[in-house]
Amino acid sequence: MARALIEFFRTMLRIRFAWKEWIALLVAVNGVAPLFFLPRLEAVAALATLLLAAVIQIAVFRRRGFVRLLGVGHFPWLVLVPWIWVRMYEIEPSQSLYLWMAALVAVDSLSLTIDVVDVARYALGERAPILVAEPRERRGR
Asked: What is the pTM of this model?
């Protein structure tokens, strides 16, 4: 599993510039920002969901490579996003917790839209890897 994780991240480093920024935003909203709100249940749920998403994506990567099917890794957000949406209305809108929750709902909803399209494209036959891991002999240069 550790080897697959390393290969996954090496491959991700080859993603085009704009997608790297998008991934950084997802990590910031789902993995870094919740740390500031621990031990709130919403923060714990976001971190747990991020961990589950990562496990799913690494498992898909190990079996299929860097393909559109990786989008299924974010499907646990289909539970998290509506739950956070409902919980938001229990928080004062001026609080930073509310702002983070609103950002999570917005960013993850857009990401889920992209993921659903990617998984559908995979199901319809677009199964070629989006990125291919760099051959080992080229890495040392």
From this structure: 0.84
